[in-house]
Amino acid sequence: MNHRVLVIDDDEKLNALLVEYLSRFDFEVRTATHPHEGLKALKADPPDLVILDVMLPDMEGFEVCREIRKAYTIPIIMLTARGEVTDRVVGLELGADDYIPKPFEPRELVARIQAVLRRGHSEDTSEIRKIGPLVVDFGKHAAKLNEQSIDLTTAEFEILSLLIERAGRVLNRDQILEHVRGLEWDAYNRSIDVLISRLRQKLKDDPKHPRFIKTIWGAGYMFIGMDSNEE
User: Fold this and answer.
1) How confident is the model at residue 120 (pLDDT cuts 50, 70, 90)?
2) Torsions phi, psi of 111, nearest 5?
3) What is the pTM for the complete model shown?
4) Span 128-230: which CATH code?
5) Helices 173-181, 154-165: inter-axial angle, 10-degree rounding
6) What is the pLDDT of residues 122-131, one digit of tens each?
7) Among 142, 146, 148, 172, which Cα is nearest to 160's?
8) For residue 5, what are the β-bridge partners?
9) Boundaries of every domain in the chain
10) Residue 39 has pLDDT above 90, yes or no
11) Residue 210: how many CA atoms within 13 Å on its side-chain side?
12) Fold agreement (3-119, 128-230)
């Protein structure tokens, strides 16, 4: 089954290029040149992944990302001509899974898309872990806290999975980045801090008195939760 991609970008020439190029890799691509058109298309038929430009008419890509995250955990790759570090932080804070500056090589974008989609499919289709009030279903790529579902993005779930798998071990930012991105991306450590912060908020985990994720100053992060059957 081909993966479906929705491109929201007001550059019609780029959209045509992406439709033609991504189809070579068996992606079904729809495009929208206006943010409201893109949101309407997404609601009518949710895709497997969204490619979202930051600079859009009437409504910035950041706001579109925020609207998508209100109802969907669909992976989002953001594009920007500005490439500013602050833009990357804002995009990650709003729930983007990856970020690529313009101009870019189409083959690099394909690699990013494939990496993000791979992260959305766990190899383990059955394992469920219960860690206090937290239940993580690796097969369904889902988590619950106090029996309430948590809306985690692909990147957030991958970080949580990695930390749980290596519980009790300190992981530095480069190790986490390498696992989550599946490629070098850019070694921008602040992006991991942003993702960890977002994950903690959703887990209701106080960094000063953590139940799950502990900051090891100057070293990285460590998962300190304990499986219920180990208690």
Assistant:
1) low
2) -60, -40
3) 0.64
4) 1.10.10.10
5) 120
6) 444 458 889 9
7) 142
8) 29, 49
9) 3-119, 128-230
10) yes
11) 18
12) no
